[in-house]
What does this fold into?
Amino acid sequence: MNEIERFLDQVCCGVAGSPDLRRHLRKELREHLTEEIESNVAAGLSREEAVRKAIAEFGDPAAIRDGLQAVHGRRLMSLLIEKSMAWRETTMKTGWKWSFVAQVALVLTIAAQVYFTAAALVYILPGIVGHHHHLGTPPLAYLGTIRRHTHWLFMDFGWIPLLLAALALWLLFEWRYRGENKSTIRLAGLSLASLATFVVLALVCIPMVIDLVILPGQIYDSQVNMRPRQAERLVVPNIATAEAALAELREAVAREDWSAAEPAAEQLDDAYSALEDASPGVIMLAGETRRDNLDEILALIDEIAESSDDIRDRLLAYRFSQSNAPDDLNAKIRSHLQDLEASRAKLAQQSALFAAHRASKTLE
Amino acid sequence: MDTELIKGTLSLLILSLLKRRPMYGYELAATVKQETDGAFAWKAGSLYPNLHKLEKDGLVRAEWQGKPEGRQRKYYHLTESGQAALEERLKAWSSISHAVNRVLEKPHE
It folds into this structure.
């Protein structure tokens, strides 16, 4: 009898009216089917065949329901259900568009995260480590480890086999996998990949941010707590380099050998720029005991760096364009060199460190 | 047979059958099938919406009959307005069929 009740469910579903009316309607239709089945059985059919035939002859359940609903009206709930089913079908049909948008968005997200991770590893991390080196403080141990382990990724082109492996995996999936939920699996795979690239980005960037937060504190600590000898090791080599470069420059200018003067000027400029960049505290601790003349020392270092920069610029311009007459060049360079020597003499007066270095050089 | 033509005659036949005596749904379908030699085999799916429409319009009146413990059937009775409607529709039907027949029976020239 279940078959009959199921059929009546289909027919009566959504027909409006009082519970009494709907009960009577169902009863009337059930009576009709029962009578038809009995007549079929009497004609010699088996019970199952009789039921099947009666139902088939009753008519299409959807059409009967429509007819009954046209007379008795329609229940609000069934109207809502039908609308929602229709909506679901339309969204299912356009589902691929949303899925495509989601997949493209995920691929772009992954690409952006990989790009930022690589940029952080290539541009920011070496800067931070270099800064620590310059200050004589150790970076977070973790940053050193990351740097060591990612060296192969960029320097040894380790990213190429990684990218190829990921692409091969994806192509294998697209080629071999045949399933209804392929698009959903692809979406899930891309989401997991995006999550993974985000975790990597976080693992790379969070320690950098922590380090940058503690770095200013380390600068202060390094200035206050650094022993003079330790500070000397950061400053003195630059003075030695500068002195050697200056000696070379003087000789080259005397010979008017401009091709030899250029690298000497470059070395001099680099050495004084490094001293300029070194924190004032480090320079003071490296040998200066008077705090009040520190600004003057720094201003003189700045002047010397500028003069060496001028010399270098003139030599570079000469090499590239050859526009200046050699006489004019000679005069200009000698003038800059004079300025430089004057600043350097003042610096030796102000700074025990520079004076001492000069003395030791002279002794040699 | 053309279902559109049958549909148009359905309520007319129901009303004229009920003029004989009150009948229930299955009986109506079985009688028509028998008297038309199976040419009019009404599907229950079209019969009941039509019956209910007539009931709603007040042309027929329904009544459950039978013992409460045994088989119960919903009998349809022709009402007075149903009677009037039947006469009106019969008139319309006869004028239509007369007109149609005159065209159909005209010998070919």
